[in-house]
Design brief:
Helix content: 10-25%
Strand order of the largest sheet: 5-2-1-8-7-6
Largest sheet: 6 strands, mixed
Number of helices: 6
Number of strands: 11
Order of helices and strands: EHEEEHEEEEHEHEHHE
Distance between the termini: 57 Å
Length: 259
């Protein structure tokens, strides 16, 4: 006999997403509406929270980003309830979301902070990978160890770092723009940096002053239990530190090709 499904939980505000945007949104709502129930729905057992916040000037702020257990958020804000599950359906007319565990959660106001998902050129192909979070970056590293030649499609920040960091593998870089990194710098700077891609890289590593957080021990074990198709929080700066981005062949020169 099938067990009875629990009744829908309700909160005036429901926030979907355990990244910086979702957690900060839930915290602000909990502060401004202390008597209301706030539901934070996240597919990951860990959340990304802002710590050590400082208002430097009118428009300049300083803060650290730290991965924490989702239970810590509920301890700081008693009116926040964290629901660890992915969202599989949105019933907007009924003001209700359905999570992957089959439960329903009713809301008056809904805030979607689930982030973006890479738009792959071919879904379901094991040779086509999209890099967005820590898990997908580690999967790319695993595939790269067996690769002699790869193609990188895209002209964003992750693509720029990949083309520079990858060694021991022939790299074909396809971009739709007239110059590399057009989001970050002009054509003149792009031409200068293109020559740096071909030149021999220095062995000396530049020390990073930014604080970096990694998942270890219980957090890493908990993350591994989440479903593989659930995307985690987006990659931050220095995401490639600690990853061995080397293929199986000798170093090749990287040349961007316009699509």
């Amino acid at each position: 006999m099938e067990a009875a499904r629990p009744p829908p939980t309700a909160g005036k505000f429901v926030v979907v997403g355990g990244g910086i945007a979702g957690v900060t949104c839930a915290e602000q709502l909990a502060t401004h509406f202390p008597s209301e129930d706030i539901l934070l729905v996240t597919a990951s057992p860990v959340i990304k929270a802002v710590t050590n916040f400082k208002q430097i000037s009118k428009i300049l702020e300083e803060f650290d980003v730290e991965e924490q257990s989702s239970t810590m958020l509920g301890k700081r804000f008693p009116n926040i309830k964290v629901i660890e599950s992915g969202v599989k359906q949105l019933k907007s007319e009924e003001h209700c979301i359905v999570t992957e565990d089959g439960n329903q959660h009713v809301y008056k106001k809904l805030c979607l902070c689930a982030g973006a998902k890479p738009k792959l050129i071919c879904e379901g192909n094991p040779y086509v990978l999209g890099i967005r979070d820590t898990d997908s970056a580690q999967e790319f590293q695993k595939q790269l160890t067996k690769a002699k030649r790869i193609m990188i499609i895209g002209n964003g920040g992750i693509a720029l770092e990949l083309v520079y960091e990858i060694e021991g593998c022939e790299v074909i870089w396809a971009i739709k723009d007239k110059a590399i990194g057009n989001t970050f710098f002009d054509a003149g700077a792009a031409e200068f940096l293109t020559s740096k891609l071909i030149a021999e890289k220095s062995e000396a590593k530049i020390a990073h002053k930014r604080t970096r957080y990694t998942t270890e021990g219980r957090k890493k074990e908990a993350r591994s239990k989440s479903k593989a198709d659930n995307v985690g929080s987006a990659l931050g700066p220095d995401w490639h530190e600690g990853l061995n981005l080397k293929g199986t062949k000798e170093q090749y020169s990287q040349h961007p090709h316009q699509k």
